Amino acid sequence: MVRLRRRxxxxxxxxxxxxxxxxxxxxxxxxxxxVARLAGVSVMTVSRALRAPATVAQPxxxxxxxxxxxxxxxxxxxxxxxxxxxxxVVAAIxxxxxxxxxxxxxxxxxxxxxxxxxxxxxVSHYDPRQEEALVRAFLSRRVDGIALFAGxxxxxxxxxxxxxxVPLVEMWADPATEVLVxxxxxxxxxxxxxxxxxxVARGRRRIGFIGGSTLHNIRQQSxxxxxxxxxAEAGLPEDVAAREETDGFLMEAGAAALARLLExxxxxxxxxxxxxxxxxxxxxxxxRRGLAVPRDLAVTGFDDAEIARAMFxxxxxxxxxxxxxxxxxxxxxxxxxxxxxxxxxxAMPARRCDLxxxxxxxxxx
Amino acid sequence: MVRLRRRxxxxxxxxxxxxxxxxxxxxxxxxxxxVARLAGVSVMTVSRALRAPATVAQPxxxxxxxxxxxxxxxxxxxxxxxxxxxxxVVAAIxxxxxxxxxxxxxxxxxxxxxxxxxxxxxVSHYDPRQEEALVRAFLSRRVDGIALFAGxxxxxxxxxxxxxxVPLVEMWADPATEVLVxxxxxxxxxxxxxxxxxxVARGRRRIGFIGGSTLHNIRQQSxxxxxxxxxAEAGLPEDVAAREETDGFLMEAGAAALARLLExxxxxxxxxxxxxxxxxxxxxxxxRRGLAVPRDLAVTGFDDAEIARAMFxxxxxxxxxxxxxxxxxxxxxxxxxxxxxxxxxxAMPARRCDLxxxxxxxxxx
DNA sequence: TACCTGATCGGTAGCGCTATCAAAGGGTAG
DNA sequence: CTACCCTTTGATAGCGCTACCGATCAGGTA
Lengths: 365, 365
Description:
The structure is a homodimer of 365-residue chains. With 365 residues, chain A is an alpha/beta fold. Chain A has 14 helices and twelve strands. Helix content of chain A is 44%, strand content 14%. In chain A, the strands form three sheets. A six-stranded parallel beta sheet of chain A has the order 2-1-3-4-5-11, with helices on both faces. In chain A, helix 2 packs across helix 3 (43-51), helix 2 (32-39) crosses helix 4 and helix 7 packs parallel to helix 8 (155-164). At the A-B interface, helix 5, helix 6, strand 2, helix 7 and helix 8 of A face helix 5, helix 6, strand 2, helix 7 and helix 8 of B. Strand 2 of chain A pairs antiparallel with strand 2 of chain B, so a sheet runs across the interface.
């Protein structure tokens, strides 16, 4: 025997006296065998009692459960995962842990909890290389599914995913974007167009746009396009100087962007902002400058984050159904995972779930 | 042979013709053996090249790495975890995915990424029973460490953790709270006292308090106590009717709490609020009612969340160093995990790391 | 009585890695 | 030239569980 079985054997295997000291407090975790012995059954029966209780006779099941209770046995899911090649874990890769992605995560964990799945988290910081590294790590862990944000994947990422054949779902897609397989989407472009349409209906004509970097970020791309759609539809001229890109997605970035924008185009009477967080910053900056919202400047946001509802003035916004998106993504992942086996991204009919969009009118416009 | 080795054997093991159909697209993941064969070494050498490259001779290492590259091999960390009884995963259990906990998570993932550890996430919704279920699940997964929020554990949770002997760290503790082993804390009680002290120095005398439920939540408990300390120190009377408990931790809950509070105590000239999110809601509600902040009502928050810095008026707050707390917690966990072996909570000298506190003065007071 | 069926349970052989020991080679001190 | 040590590599035996096949047995059928 090469590896020492550090188990208190039923007598006989006592350590030499010195061992008592060296091995302080090393009770070693219980194994199924221990439970089985106590219940007077085989390990397989214990395994079945845990995995498929319906296949075990009532009296036996009761005995096993009593033994489980008595020992406080915690199954080793690592061994289980190796033996069954199913880990009961799904991974999520998000750009940042912040609004509006936190509700998506929340939705996912809520659904997964009900199915006894766990969620491993990866944060990509909007960097395709980091996403690639995360995908690699998660595939190495043999997760049963991966949820990621649509768009901005490296070629290597796509190749690995295709090769691994793991259930996959992309979130926060726009219906028009190309995806790998399954996707949950919200029509972001239409949403932005509707926001502009609404501002036009309110009599605004000098409508600016503030958004995050569109690099590797298809959400920002879609929203910008929707804004341009809205201008075109209303016959308003496109004005590059009326658009400003933020540095990051914090409120302060929104505030700074408005400051720069107003320097160039002081006459703006409305701004379409590509995120509620940025929009909140825009409103704060407007107030700081003595501009009244919406009287002097109308503002629309995106996502329907908590702050949009709560702030004063409350924020007109496009509901991205962030939490529902998480729930839906988790459900789709579980569905694929439960079918078991490889998922062939090439052959598989892609499933898309579109959650629809809704402009929510509030005080800021 | 019982279990079918579904591998393209080097000839010989061909499936019967019908198999071709049944087994569409089942390339099966590569194993170390495949890499080893290609590199002309044993599997152990591949394992070493991956885990401990320094112990492999340069030319061999190069050959193995080439083979690794060529095959695109992804190590199976499940098998690795079983064999080595180290999973390279740590778990975090947080009450909610929201401010101010999101930065803590962010800090943790940042540190863990550098150490090739992954983070599994659990959300307890402030419910000790859910926390218990999560701890059970994580222990079953044999995570290498668990970070949880201090306080509010069930007896069973504590017992399991003690029994499992897994590295542990509690976050968001107050230095005075009792913890299981290691903890990262911030003096929340002192922080709240300082906030009140500051309001008093600004000439405020009718100072109210708005906080979340103190049930299972030692952070809220500490902050409330600090507020009372502050009043006592200034010789101000304790007034139960000047305190209001919120329903949840959203901005709207803060707004609603202020509304109730002002109904009972319309003459308040300051409110000490136990979270920036709630405090933002309080400020919004004040504005909605035509009260100027800080002229008519001074407001202090807690946590130094993004909104405290960004909003107008910006929020005086107590910095909880949320992200640093996450970083520190992850570092302490890794330190314990790398030492390997069981952690005996009873015998182990507890380590506490106190990050200090800081009142940040801004416009709202 | 012989045979079949379905429910229940156990034995065994892995799952894909790593820990441990053993062996082989090369250098070097005596 | 021998003894010894260090470096490098390989062979082997698990890690703790589950998939698979078989065995057993009660009950029903022909």
